[in-house]
Design brief:
mainly alpha; Cytochrome Bc1 Complex, Chain D, domain 2; 5 helices; 57% helix; binds heme C
């Protein structure tokens, strides 16, 4: 009985450690899932993750700005102020997104793949 408990505890510790190792990188790399924010602020009326609607797909946005260190700040501004002439003739109107939601939203777009 005693021996059995020790094995279970050890097994649990190993599983927990492995789980921590596996999940740690995923947590630090993946942006928070901001899909609910994209819906809340109506971005999804004009954008989809993987296909062009009125505006570019979020995958295309992520690809265009990959490796661009200033992309987060630039796109936060584009989303708030609106954007025109970057992707085509169709302009994006200004979007009223509070700063607290803007950053996770744009980080999530830049991580789209
Ligand atoms: C009425 C349609 C419409 C809505 C609503 C809309 N967009 Fe856009 N979006 C566009 C269009 C069109 C473009 C391309 C503009 C251009 O060519 O400069 C665009 C471009 C973008 C870009 C790329 C900007 C750049 O400078 O490269 C991002 C990021 C983006 N939208 C995010 C969002 C987010 C986040 C929301 C919601 C808060 C949103 N959009 C709502 C139509 C829309």
């Amino acid at each position: 009985m005693h021996k059995m408990r020790r094995i279970n505890t050890a097994t649990f510790a190993i599983v927990a450690a492995a789980g921590a190792l596996l999940s740690a990188p995923a947590v630090s790399v993946a942006a928070t899932d901001a899909a609910p924010l994209a819906a809340k602020y109506n971005c999804t009326a004009c954008h989809a993750i993987d296909k062009k609607l009125v505006g570019p797909s979020f995958k295309d946005v992520a690809a265009k700005y990959a490796g661009n260190a200033g992309a987060l700040v630039k796109l936060e501004h584009s989303v708030k102020a609106g954007s025109t002439g970057v992707w085509g003739a169709m302009p994006m109107p200004p979007n009223n997104v509070p700063d607290a939601d803007l950053k996770p939203l744009v980080e999530w777009i830049l991580a789209a793949k």
